[in-house]
Design brief:
Layout lengths: L2 H4 L9 E7 L6 H7 L4 E7 L9 H7 L2 H10 L7 E4 L2 H5 L2 H14 L5 E3 H12 L3 E6 L3 H13 L3 E7 L11 H11 L6 E4 L10 H8 L3 E3 H12 L9 H4 L10
Parallel strand pairs: 1-2, 1-3, 3-4, 5-6, 5-7, 7-8
Helix pairs in contact: 4-6, 7-11
């Protein structure tokens, strides 16, 4: 490098990294980046493409252990501090045992720490002390029922739910459509509301919805990035009751 260009230059700060295993149709990379501090990079990879509609069968396929193992290995070269499985339905469709298998699969593949979206949801609910939940989803009813069953396994009751009944193109759902299903799903008995699916855009909606509903609002991408950064001893960037809770645990904590 010429002398005149090297004067005053400093080496860039060391980047921490998060490996992200996402479904083949995941389209909200930019939303995940918004939760990340400037010195944290995301290393994203996709699960294999297939043509199944967004049904229970597709959710099961997204959790295929061989594909998850391969995808995990794909993001290990830049040495991420944690690897996350960023798919809600794929991590709840086979219940609590299935979610644990996913985490173990990623760890067995070499992930230093592994988290899933559905596991992150349970951790977030525990931090907030929530046991009665309203849920808003883009799914068809059989998929939503699997989420209700998964929550019940963890002692969380679903007091109300609303779904869009979509079989595909979930990333095309607008903010206004998300607000509509949230309003329909909310229930006075619910202590909080969860917006499921990492392919639903929600970043800018959390604080306005919390103000309107008067309760915590959790979203799939929010809890995913919160849990990943929390495992690294870091805070996610954004608003909402979960991030404001300042629940700090040592790196690697669940």
């Amino acid at each position: 490098m010429p002398t005149e260009l090297s004067v005053g230059l400093t080496e860039p700060d060391h980047q921490q990294g998060i490996g992200v295993v996402a479904p083949f149709d995941f389209a909200l990379d930019r939303e995940l980046w918004r939760w990340a501090p400037e010195d944290v990079s995301l290393y994203l990879t996709r699960l294999p493409f297939f043509t199944t509609p967004v049904t229970v069968e597709m959710a099961v396929a997204c959790g295929d252990r061989r594909a998850v193992r391969r995808a995990t290995r794909d993001v290990l070269t830049p040495e991420p501090g944690v690897v996350i499985y960023a798919c809600t339905s794929g991590s709840f469709v086979e219940g609590a045992a299935g979610e644990e298998v996913l985490r173990r699969t990623m760890e067995d593949a070499g992930a230093p720490v592994a988290r899933t979206t559905s596991g992150a949801l349970i951790a977030a609910l525990k931090v907030l002390g929530v046991s009665r939940l309203a849920i808003a989803t883009p799914y068809v009813e059989p998929v939503t029922r699997r989420l209700v069953a998964y929550l019940a396994e963890h002692g969380v009751s679903t007091v109300s739910s609303e779904g869009l009944g979509l079989l595909g193109n979930i990333w095309r759902v607008t903010y206004s459509q998300v607000v509509e299903i949230v309003r329909a799903a909310d229930n006075p008995a619910a202590e909080a509301l969860f917006i499921s699916c990492t392919n639903l855009p929600t970043y800018d909606l959390i604080e306005p919805l919390e103000q309107a509903l008067g309760k915590p609002v959790l979203t799939a991408n929010q809890v995913t990035m919160w849990a990943a950064l929390r495992a690294m001893g870091r805070d996610a960037v954004g608003g909402g009751s979960l991030l404001a809770s300042h629940d700090h645990l040592t790196p690697g904590a669940a």
